[in-house]
Structures are given as C-alpha cells and as structure tokens.
User: Fold Aspartate aminotransferase family protein from Sinisalibacter lacisalsi.
Amino acid sequence: MTDLTARRARVLGPRMTTFYREPVEIVRGEGVWLWDAGGRAYLDAYNNVPHVGHGHPRVVEAVADQLATLNTHSRYLHEGIVAYGERLTGRLGEGLDVLTMVCTGSEANDIALRMGWAATGKTGLIGTDATYHGNTHLVSQFSSGRTPIGGRVDWVRRVPAPDSLRPLGGSAEAQAEAFAAGVARAIDELEAAGHGFAALILDPFFANEGFPDLPPGFMAPTQAVVRAAGGLVIADEVQPGFGRTGGHFWGHERIGLVPDIVTMGKPMGNGYPVAGVVTRGEIVEAFRRDFGYFNTFAGTPVAAAAASAVLNVIEAEGLQANAAEVGTHLLAGLRALDHPRIADVRGAGLFVGVEFTEPGGLEPAPEFTAEAVERMRERGVLMHRIGRGGNILKIRPPMVFSRENAELLVATLGEVLEGMD
Amino acid sequence: MTDLTARRARVLGPRMTTFYREPVEIVRGEGVWLWDAGGRAYLDAYNNVPHVGHGHPRVVEAVADQLATLNTHSRYLHEGIVAYGERLTGRLGEGLDVLTMVCTGSEANDIALRMGWAATGKTGLIGTDATYHGNTHLVSQFSSGRTPIGGRVDWVRRVPAPDSLRPLGGSAEAQAEAFAAGVARAIDELEAAGHGFAALILDPFFANEGFPDLPPGFMAPTQAVVRAAGGLVIADEVQPGFGRTGGHFWGHERIGLVPDIVTMGKPMGNGYPVAGVVTRGEIVEAFRRDFGYFNTFAGTPVAAAAASAVLNVIEAEGLQANAAEVGTHLLAGLRALDHPRIADVRGAGLFVGVEFTEPGGLEPAPEFTAEAVERMRERGVLMHRIGRGGNILKIRPPMVFSRENAELLVATLGEVLEGMD
Assistant:
C-alpha cells in the first residue's frame, strides 16, 4: 500500500472504493488523455463527465472568467441562467420548456420523482430491476444492488429490464410489448396497494441495464400504458444526453420516447457540478405550489457559464457527428475481434461495449470481463464494466475521441483477449 | 416587468422566487460589494456562500488552475482530496476523522441521516419545529413550512425550538432542560411507534429558528438524553461553520455540543459546489456496508482545490478573528439604535440580527421587518429576514466585512427605521 493509499483509507474511511487492482493516481488530463504521477499516459475510454475533453480550454476559461466576475445564487436576476435555459429547452421537444437547475444527477432525479407526485397526486413509482438513478434516499430506492438503508419502500416497483441477448418475451420482436406488460403489471400492483401510479423513470439508453439494442419504436407500447394510467414518463438523460449516442442529441429521441420530464447531469458542465430538470410549466407549477424549492449552488452564473461553454464546444467542434462517426468505426473494429467469449458487440455513438459470456452460451462472464478491464488498464487504456451481470465492457470516452483513439483501443483489446481463455 | 424578468418567468417557470419587490440584477461582485446592471453598488450583508468574499482571487486562481490541470472523480487516487480531508478533520474534535465529500448541504444531510439509520439500525429522526436542512425528499421532511410533497412521514418528529424572547420552560434558565424534555418526549413517541430512535439533527446556531442566545452548556441535557437512548447527534454546520460566529470555528463548539456527525456546505468552497460529512470511521463503515455510496461530482481535484483555498484565505486573512471583532462592533452599533419595535439585537460574529415585534410586546412584526429589508435594499444594503415569525433581520455577510461596512449598515438601518412606525 502506497503512502497516499494509506492516508486515503484513513481520512476517506472504510470501503471507499477505487477503480483497478492497483489504483491509478491521475495528476493531469487533456482531451482523451490522462497522466499518472509517474508520467505514464492513459487513453481515457471511460469518463463521460469531461464530455468535451479533459481540461477543455474554452470551458476552463468560461468558468474562470465568470468566477472572477460574479457567482451568486438564482434569487437575483441574471442573464446567464435565463439564456442557458432558453438554449437548452430549445433542444427539447414541444412543451419541454421549463428548466430547473440543480447540482447533481441525483438531485435532478430526486425532484423529478417528486414532480411526478405533485403533478399526479399519486406516489407509486416504477423503474427497471437493473438500474441506478443516483444516491439520495429517495433515488437510491431504484438501485438494483443492496437493499437501501432504511429498507425498500412499498411504493417503488421494479420491472424486468430489456436485454439484447435474453430478450423479454423470448424474442427481439416481442420485447417492446413484454416490457410494457411488466410496467402494466407494476401499475396494477401500485393501484391495488393504494399508492396509485405517478411516474416511470428510465434511462432511455438503458445504460446500466447493459444498453440493449432496441428498435426506434420500442417505447410506444409502454408509453401508451403509462399515459392510459395517467402517469408520467421521466427520461434520465444523465448518460445518453448531449449527443453521446451520435445519431440523436437525446437518448429518448433515439427510441421514440416522448418524456414528460427530462433529467440530465454528468456531461452538462464538463465536470463543474451542474444538473437539471426540464419539463412542462404545469408540472413545475404543481411542484413549486407544494414545495418552495430552492438550490443554493444551482443555476449560478458560473454553473450557467460552464454549461453554456459545453454546448458551445459540442457545436463548434461537431462532437455529436464525431460520436456518430468514431462510434461506427469503433463498433466495426470491436466486431472484427474474435474470441469465444465475445457474445455481442453493441452500442451507439461513443457508448459501446462488448458482452462476454461463457463460451457458446448466455451465462455472463463477470470475472473474465473484470480481468480484461484490468489488463486494458495495465496496457494504458481505461474502461470499466457494466450490465446486470457485470459482463459488458463500458466504453464511454470523452466526445473528442478520434478514429486513431478507437483503433488504439481495438488493437489493445485484441492483444488482451489473445492472452485470455 | 423587464424583458429579463419576463424571459426568466418563461424559462425558469412559475413560482421561481426572487429577493425584493423589485428584483436586483447583479452582474459583478468583489469582496462585500455587488453591482447591478446599472452600475449601482450594493453592500452585501446577506450572502454567506462567498465566505471569503465575492470573486476572491486566490479561490478563483485555485479553481482555474486545477480545472486546467485535472478534474476527475474520486475513484482514482488524488492527493487533493486526501490532503483536504486531513486538514479539515484536523479542525474537528477527537474521533471526527473521516470525511465524505458531497456537492450540496442537502446531499450532506441526506446521507448523514442515513448514516444515523445504518449505525443504529433504527429509523426515527428528530429536528426542531422551525428549521430547514435542505431540499431532497428525505431532508425536506424537516422543513417547517408546507407539508412535503408525498406527505409527512411518521418517523420524523419535530420538537419545539429554543427562542430568545419566548424561552421554552418560561425562562432562559429553564430552556436547556425544556428543550431536552421535548427531545425525550419525541424519542418516547418514536419508540412507542416502533421506529426506534436514530438521530437528532440540528443547526447548533439554530439559525433558521432565529439564532436565540443560548448559554455554552445549553446542549448538555439534550446530549445526555440522546446518548441514553442510543441515538446520534448530527450538527448541521452549513450556516455557523468555518469561523462565522467569531469565537469558534464550528457552531457546535460554541454551545458545548459534541456531535457524532457534522455536516457542512454553503461556505465550504466560496460558491463552488462543495459540501461534506465528517464522522467516525465506524459510522462510515456501517453506512458503506449497507450502501455503495458514490458521488461523481464530489471530492474531485477541483472541489478539493476550492475548499483548500477557502481554508487558506480564512487563515491568511484572519477571518475568524475579523468576524469576532467586526461582529462585536456591529452588534454594539445595532444595540445603539432606538425604535419601539426593536425587541432584541443578538447573534455572534458575522451572523447577527434585529428582532422586531409589535411595540411593547412579543407579537412578531413580519410585515415591518419585510418593509425594513426592502428599504435597506433601496438604500443599497442587501439583507433578508429569518426566524419562525419572519421578524428577524438576517445579517450574514461575507467574512471580509469591515468595521466601516458595519458602520454603513448601522447608519443606513438607523435612517430606514427613522422613517417607519
């Protein structure tokens, strides 16, 4: 154990996890590259928070300038938050025109769920059974891992998540109806239990679920079920939003979902803590009528400057198009790899992965996947794993990832897999 | 309505409140001064987030440098968060030696309460009946205003808050025992209801309650009651922490409280979204054993740089001593004001206020107080009001407030009060 590791364990306390068997001490970042304390470079194929690249000078400059000028809260008038709100809502569908700024994706989902309560007068909530929406008390009820502290509440139900290799209903064609049927059952249960049904929350890319391949109309049957029951759909865009999937700016557009509430977080400020909730005016009206919501650090001039700079760079550098092009190249490269444990290669834009199973079957191979992640790190490429079985490589780099970066990743993974059974 | 006000109402939605009858459009800040779009200067006697002063160059530089160098999450090793944790916990009492960084005071309290659950195995929580601890679903259960969305839970009980002019138990001497008796009753109720008792959360300055004058041993009886019941005390230092009260670095030291968990927020990063929870290792162990807590934007190299810079400036500029000295001068000036509605002048360091009542009695005068706040703003001094009755001036400026600033505030308030009945 290094001195830093020991000091960290002491002051940050027990069970403060790190990535990798031998944790990496990162000291500098630029674009898609990170450097450790020994000067070694790593290709960052994991981090989506530095959406437009580590240390992007336009974002740094925007934050530094605004910090030196003014950083106060949103109870004073300021052009910055208003202009950002107009620009951001302009990128969303009709009716999604009111922005509430918060600081983290967890805070965004925490209030989006309560907006659902306030707008419907009901308390029942639904998520998938292989997801994660954040870390507050309310939102952690959706985590698929350990039972939340304080126990699970009766008014949150979890429905079977879609899957690429093991589709609900037994086939890719049946999956959309089968997912909707799961939601319908959960709604019936919530109504029978007296909670009523307020909202369904989901990541439209189903990232934590393993980002299954889904057809564009996948959500139509579910959306009809939710609407018929008088509930709302919350699209958690923390992972797929801001052009990540290449073909669309938002994940919900990709699968033909029309959400009532959209939440966003991680990539929004390139690392400055900014998150937000966009919905219709009448939902905000219901929420604020019942609760005098205010968030000190949210929607400040600096938060707005950081978020605006991110949109500027996405546009100026054509990063959504880059995600589409490089993502296609990356997928093609990964698909050309040959290994008996590769069961599937899928994803969209710059969010792709390789699913590993026991050879010839569907049994997830989490240890194999974990070992591959470690060996990639040893060879200087940072990624992680995801999915219900922990058996899918999570490749989700900054959006400035290039074709050359993709080729280096694929070549390195090829070498790693060659040495593994 | 100005164009900006109209645009703001449209894109930030209904019931997005502003301060003051005529909202102020602030465009620049420096030290204790804010300037509006027309170039008018305002003395900021309200904002505690810019703890070491608006736009402090050392904080701006620290954030800008670190943003340009590296800003990634805490699952990689980094010296910044470790060094900050060591420094911060070094300022807290024995055993309070493990830091969990988060982004907002709400997030800090949301996990502190769940730490209480995890450490005790019970769910009952207690706060005062005139408080505010934040805006997540869990934490909003403590808000004394409207019923939280989704209704009030049975496992949160609210006890009568101490008061300067209307002391619990009928006298200042009886108040400490009377407050403890309220807590004891709430514990009995929680146990009778089957929830058991996990934690008492309070701001040791009782800021929202109206910061009553309390003797140094005030918390001793309550602490004994909590300990005897096997519960924990959470000190919410979001308002009094970081030297604000002048005589002590933490509010809990001032009233002789020995907390099990300390939460902090607003002033910690001078406006960069940083907050934290400090407690004992075994409480963190219980919490993380039950929940794989991770917070993407928290404890990043930039968050640590901002928070470290704030400690640097507090120390280099002697701001705690400044708060003590200027606060004493400010209190003396306020006490020299004469008006039939001034019922009390109190506070500590740079958190002071004037309580207004109907002449000669104890009936709060919230409209009078609101009018005084408006007239101060018209004369270029920004403050607000607080307390159960909304009848106490809230004077809580950046810690670089000078004797001259205090004299300007007192003189302006004198002029304002002269024109009011």
Observations:
- Chain B touches chain A through 102 residues (CB under 8 Å).
- The two ends of chain B are 30 Å apart (CA to CA).
